[in-house]
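Researcher: We plan to redesign the surface later, but first we want a full-length starting point. Tokens attached.
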């Protein structure tokens, strides 16, 4: 659920819009991601006539799945613009040279794209990609070493407690500044909801970020999330012990909820409105200059108001 902090997604989980975590250690990478992948598990892209997998449409905006390698590269270029060129993420040499935000997860995740058909085409003649989200299903993650968020939170314990449910990780979310509007966010969520219904997903998880790395300066929003949005015992999971930062920094009676909500990124507020919970403990990400929390959103907990809005069968913005 990671993404740009203005919207609450984190590059990597709805509203810092999902952020990239290039700080993963070489040891972790070697142990987890250098295993040979089965060809059947990899995201298959068409090499001949491109397949269009539209999830919905709202005016000139279309939300669809990436179906070609070029689609994924366009998503990576957008993430680079938001996270590195215009944001505060620190790029390594390969990222600077490629001018794309990419990691090993991109090879086997699904990617949602928002296309503006009214915008001027790019120099390559393609319609402009203005928003993106990366989705990692549990069955795919298990074939490739785990979820992206495992580095920060104990996701495995949560999954093991709910062995009969299917999890989906949201991540690497970002939207160009002119498109950070209700229409774009609604279309993105329509796409995600369509995907959730298509794959029979029971629980959505992901990291969301608050700008800044000093938890004392973030005491109000962190404490608000701890006291007002903490996951119940059955859905609670902790930040990894080595990275755990306490969120309970203010007594509940000293919190001004309205002031706290004003300090929360729009993405996190959006998750809370849907019925999401927040995990135990935050994690500091110095590379991206953010403080991350874990969002846990069981589909069964999503308020009927929003299910009614999008349609139980995801038909509201269907084409």
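Model: Full-length starting sequence:
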């Amino acid at each position: 659920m990671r993404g740009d902090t203005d919207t609450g997604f984190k590059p990597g989980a709805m509203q810092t819009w999902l952020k990239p975590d290039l700080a993963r250690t070489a040891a972790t990478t070697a142990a987890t991601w250098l295993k040979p992948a089965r060809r059947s598990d990899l995201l298959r892209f068409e090499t001949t006539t491109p397949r269009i997998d539209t999830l919905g449409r709202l005016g000139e905006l279309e939300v669809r799945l990436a179906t070609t390698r070029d689609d994924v590269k366009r998503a990576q270029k957008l993430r680079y613009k938001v996270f590195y060129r215009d944001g505060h993420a620190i790029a390594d040499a390969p990222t600077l040279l490629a001018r794309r935000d990419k990691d090993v997860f991109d090879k086997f995740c699904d990617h949602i794209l928002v296309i503006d058909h009214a915008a001027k085409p790019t120099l390559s003649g393609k319609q402009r990609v203005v928003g993106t989200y990366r989705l990692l299903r549990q069955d795919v993650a298990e074939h490739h070493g785990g979820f992206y968020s495992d580095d920060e939170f104990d996701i495995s314990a949560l999954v093991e407690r709910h062995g009969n449910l299917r999890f989906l990780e949201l991540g690497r979310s970002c939207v160009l500044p002119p498109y950070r509007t209700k229409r774009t966010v609604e279309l993105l969520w329509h796409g995600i909801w369509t995907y959730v219904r298509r794959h029979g997903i029971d629980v959505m998880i992901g990291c969301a970020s608050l700008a800044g790395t000093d938890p004392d300066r973030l005491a109000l929003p962190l404490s608000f999330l701890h006291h007002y949005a903490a996951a119940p015992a059955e859905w609670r999971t902790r930040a990894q012990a080595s990275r755990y930062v306490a969120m309970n920094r203010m007594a509940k009676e000293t919190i001004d909820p309205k002031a706290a909500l004003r300090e929360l990124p729009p993405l996190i507020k959006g998750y809370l409105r849907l019925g999401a919970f927040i995990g135990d403990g935050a994690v500091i990400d110095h590379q991206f200059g953010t403080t991350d929390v874990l969002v846990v959103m069981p589909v069964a907990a999503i308020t009927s108001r929003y299910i009614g809005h999008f349609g139980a069968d995801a038909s509201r913005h269907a084409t």
